[in-house]
Inverse folding.
């Protein structure tokens, strides 16, 4: 009998950014790991001196204010080396994606240098918020997922990089196609903040599989309660987003005057 | 609403605000509790100073429990005279201007203040006391905890010399932020949610927590000795202060009631109000904006709680665990992230217990509680959720829209 595989998951600098239950992602990895016979140890790293050698790092949260703090803190750790050398997987969310980008945008709209781990350059754009639905992706063994976005950024992928998701609903990277986030080596970058892995256990599976360098797909594992919650959200998004017509392009003040 | 002694600009501001508030009400666009203040502030940014006048004000801030504690403070101050309070919960500068402009006569004020508005509100009202409850993350606002704490620390340093900061010494973040206050009084009632205070805000070291205290091995800060301490007293609660003990009867369930009561007594004492008289008035507070008062459902009594962040949910879970009362969770939709905060709450403390979940967003509640190992039951409506439990008192923990809907429904029927 082979010994039970075990992983260490480290949540990095959670207080530096605006939280939206991102820490529930670590708990989701532990839960999904337990169901799959993988023992997962959770660690929270709050300052560079407490950095640990983990197999999975969770970095980010929403909010422009915290990016420089993340860049400064991460720069004093081995994170970039460990992820670049394939020793660890990084899930970089929103402000975390900015921190590991090549360039990001500060609160004043100025370009700042990132840690260069994710092959993206971030540009200012207009504000967009809402619920996001992804398209199923057989290559990553993912069904349609649910997530939230709230940012005023365009995330430009560098040549050769692929988005993490393709969207059915939502704005995503605002580049070519309907891409969202970036998947490059051991970096999974996304703007979808909040309890993303808790809402989408299959994405937790993907992170675990990458951390274990597991090639074959996981056996199917149902989680009926969370799947139902996701189904209801997706149905709600599809109901609330009618096909865009000429009417929708008018300013709402003008549209209101027109007979329906 | 305007006084002859107000500066001309403030009078113009108040007249504009009053007209706008009336217009807003007449158009059915709301209670008019913010728009008037907002316009008045635009005409004169100093208008809060004019409407606050020279009355003696207690400002209440913190992430959780502001409305409840403000109501308790208002009651505790009342033996000292008439009290104005922004009891509608409009707790930013504009709402406070509206509340104070509507009552220029009361000599005392109990003002609930949003965390990030503490600076301008303290400058405008020149309070005699600032009550600081806790500091915890919220998901609905785009402000990091760190920047709120820095705002508090800066504000604390600029409080008037005769103002006393009444702070929760069990919260290391609050304690640090108000170190710079000219005068400080400590209240201790416990901290339910420590996950936001794991590291020292001053030096970044991981703190040592015991059941009743905290200290930082890095910079050697530790929990200041409290001046007011909530203690169990027989089957009820009391507050110990200066060698004496005052019994507290508060309708608010769990420890939230006596802890809020302790802050209110400390505030009353700071303003020279007799503590025993204040305690008596606190016990008469039966209800805060529809919260806490028991409602009858058949042979059951439902007590409503309204929760908005993990710290709030942690408190509700603590009420259910410490009182042994059964729990109903009621969730309605209010946007994409309406249930996100619940993913981090310690529902595993209820593992093995039976909890009913109801409301338009109940699928999320079922998923979150199921993941925490709770035995969850789905209920199509509140009545079947409550009566699913054995007869007696049931705690109904609601998110904001579910709370609005259910309290309205209850108030419309039997009380």
């Amino acid at each position: 009998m082979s010994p039970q595989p075990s992983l260490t998951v480290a949540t990095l600098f959670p207080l530096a950014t605006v939280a939206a239950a991102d820490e529930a992602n670590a708990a989701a990895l532990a839960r999904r790991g337990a169901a799959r016979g993988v023992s997962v140890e959770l660690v929270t790293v709050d300052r560079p001196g407490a950095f640990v050698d983990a197999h999975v790092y969770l970095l980010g949260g929403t909010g422009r204010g915290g990016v420089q703090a993340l860049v400064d803190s991460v720069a004093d750790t081995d994170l970039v080396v460990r992820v670049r050398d394939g020793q660890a997987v990084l899930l970089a969310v929103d402000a975390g994606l900015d921190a590991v980008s090549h360039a990001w945008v500060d609160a004043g709209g100025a370009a700042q240098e990132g840690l260069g781990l994710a092959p993206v350059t971030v540009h200012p754009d207009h504000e967009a918020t809402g619920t996001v639905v992804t398209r199923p992706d057989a290559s990553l063994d993912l069904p349609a997922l649910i997530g939230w976005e709230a940012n005023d950024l365009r995330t430009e992928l560098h040549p050769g990089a692929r988005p993490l998701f393709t969207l059915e609903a939502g704005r995503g990277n605002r580049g070519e196609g309907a891409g969202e986030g970036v998947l490059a080596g051991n970096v999974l970058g996304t703007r979808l903040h909040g309890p993303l892995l808790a809402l989408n256990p299959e994405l937790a599976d993907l992170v675990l599989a990458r951390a274990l360098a597991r090639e074959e797909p996981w056996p199917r594992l149902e989680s009926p309660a969370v799947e139902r919650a996701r189904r209801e959200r997706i149905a709600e998004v599809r109901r609330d987003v009618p096909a865009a017509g000429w009417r929708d392009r008018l300013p709402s003040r003008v549209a209101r005057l027109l007979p329906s | 609403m305007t006084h002859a002694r107000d500066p001309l600009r403030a009078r113009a501001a108040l007249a504009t605000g009053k007209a706008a508030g009336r217009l807003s009400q007449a158009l059915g666009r709301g209670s008019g509790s913010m728009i008037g203040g907002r316009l008045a502030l635009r005409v004169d940014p100093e208008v809060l100073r004019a409407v606050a006048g020279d009355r003696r004000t207690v400002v209440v801030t913190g992430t959780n429990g502001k409305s409840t504690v403000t109501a308790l403070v208002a009651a505790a101050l009342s033996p000292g005279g008439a009290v104005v309070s922004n009891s509608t919960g409009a707790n930013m500068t504009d709402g406070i201007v509206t509340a104070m402009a509507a009552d220029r006569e009361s000599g005392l004020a109990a003002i609930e203040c949003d965390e990030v508005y503490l600076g301008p509100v303290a400058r405008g009202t020149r309070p005699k006391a600032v009550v600081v409850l806790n500091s915890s993350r919220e998901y609905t606002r785009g402000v990091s905890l760190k920047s709120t704490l820095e705002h508090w620390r800066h504000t604390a340093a600029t409080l008037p010399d005769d103002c006393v900061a009444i702070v929760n010494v069990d919260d290391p973040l609050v304690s640090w932020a108000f170190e710079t206050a000219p005068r400080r009084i400590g209240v201790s009632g416990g901290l339910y949610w420590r996950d936001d205070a794991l590291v020292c805000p001053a030096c970044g070291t991981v703190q040592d927590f015991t059941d009743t205290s905290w200290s930082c091995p890095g910079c050697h800060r530790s929990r200041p000795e409290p001046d007011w301490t909530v203690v169990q007293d027989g089957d009820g609660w009391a507050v110990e202060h200066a060698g004496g003990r005052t019994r507290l009867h508060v309708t608010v369930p769990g420890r939230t009631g006596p802890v809020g009561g302790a802050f209110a007594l400390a505030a009353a004492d700071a303003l020279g109000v007799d503590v025993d008289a204040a305690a008596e008035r606190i016990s008469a507070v039966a209800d805060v904006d529809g919260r806490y008062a028991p409602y009858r459902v058949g042979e059951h009594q439902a007590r409503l709680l309204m929760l908005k962040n993990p710290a709030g949910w942690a408190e509700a879970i603590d009420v259910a665990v410490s009182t042994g009362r059964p729990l109903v969770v009621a969730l309605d939709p209010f946007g994409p992230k309406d249930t996100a905060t619940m993913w981090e709450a310690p529902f595993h403390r209820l593992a093995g217990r039976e909890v009913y979940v109801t409301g338009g967003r109940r699928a999320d509640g079922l998923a979150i509680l199921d993941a925490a190992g709770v035995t969850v039951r789905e209920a199509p409506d509140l009545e079947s959720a409550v009566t699913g439990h054995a007869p007696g008192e049931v705690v109904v923990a609601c998110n904001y829209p579910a709370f609005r809907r259910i309290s309205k429904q209850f108030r419309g029927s039997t009380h």
Q: What stands out?
A: The mean pLDDT of chain A is 89. Chain A touches chain B at residues 15-21, 23-24, 27-28, 31, 44, 46-47, 50, 62-63, 65-66, 69, 129-131, 148, 194-195, 198, 223, 225-226, 228-229, 232, 236 (CB under 8 Å).
